[in-house]
Batch of 3 targets.
Target 1
Amino acid sequence: MQDGGTLRGAGDIRGILRAIFESILGRSCFVALSYHLKHSLGEDPLTVFLRGPREFYQALSKFFGENGATVTFKIVCGRLIALSGFEELTPDDIYDLLLRDEEAARRVIVEMLEKLASKGGGLEG
């Protein structure tokens, strides 16, 4: 999963994550959201999501408000779960994990994305 602090295949999993966000929000909304989050975070929001999902979530909260950020995060997690086949998890499980142990949540998210990448990254549910 990690190699010297960097994600193996980070470009692949970043592209999959982008496709998931675009499939949920639509391309135009995702571009607008990315623009605002990049301004808030000072760097690419998908990179932040992969490195520190809580930091991403906090920026999302500033944009959408707490409830909107929670719903958006859970929808993204639900899509990840469905696509990766990690059906023993729920979006609530990942959200709760994010609040308790960011690193554990990050590992779960990256593991799901890596599984998708190994399957060819298709977003067919």
Note: The domain at 10-118 is CATH 1.10.1200 (Non-ribosomal Peptide Synthetase Peptidyl Carrier Protein; Chain A).
Target 2
Amino acid sequence: MENIIIPQGNTNEEVKAREQVIYQFYKQWKLANPTQRKYNLSLKDYINIRQISIIETAEHAAKTYLSTLAVLQLDAILTNAQKVAVVRTKIRSRNQNQFEKMIVMGYQCVGIGAIKMIVGIKRSNKEKVQYCITHLDVDDLLYTDFCHAIQTKK
């Protein structure tokens, strides 16, 4: 990906600009990765990128500068994220209806911090699909537990 400037503010325009950065990144990533998947060492299985991956991640990661930066580390996150927990899908989430469970995964990224990736397990074929990637803020109550879980899984 060519050098781009990622807005750091929180105005609507800056969030929209970060959304576009994420969409463009995934577009280029898909061209470079025609199988649209990466092998994850912790799950010992492939994590696939699908349209829901791009939509959910762009919607959530664009909200903060660090989450947008995290998405740009997609290869490292897909390959090296550690399984932290398996949780049920959100009952009222239409986007999660296709999944039977969600795997919460974590990755410690130098210069960015703790990254949370949600991977859905599809009901129909058990395929693992990257659902969302976001930066986990230090102010988040789960931050310490999350970072500890990442470290102990290595």
Note: The chain has a mean pLDDT of 89.
Target 3
Amino acid sequence: MARWLGAFLVAGCLGVAGWCPAEAKDHAAAKSLTRTGLVTYAHSSRACAADDLPGNWHLVAFDSSYRFRNPQAPYLFPHQAFQYSQRGGAKSAHSLHPLSGDHDQLFEAVPLDMTYRVEGKGRVVLKTRGHTETVETWTCRVITQDPEAMGDGTRLQRGDLVMTLIGSNGQGLFVRHLRKRAA
């Protein structure tokens, strides 16, 4: 029970902070986001569509060449989960410890403070609920081939998402590799 309470606390208090726009706009452009598998996937992926996002996702890996001001910020935690609803709601939970159990139950405790919309070719736009200003913009790609078909030794799997946070000058700031949780 204490583990769940800790996860809820982290999710509720820090989850929204993970969507904070300050981290996206106050760092210099990344020199390279070339970690194997997170950038070299273009030949085996397609742009996300609106029906690709709904569901519960967990972080497989992330990559950034930035030095973040706060190394304890929740978006750098090793255990992260994301929920995108059919109605355009977006929630996140971040923890230093594994997030186990039912993610639907986990996200019941997280307030719905963010909305998302997929625009154009795989551009995911996040806004604070009830506001019109964009908080974050991500490019989103769906992996369309299994790793053995890719032949490059990556851990990507068919159906995974690779999302790149786009900075105010159009540069890639942060790459997330997400995998959908089984229903």
Note: The two ends are 23 Å apart (CA to CA).
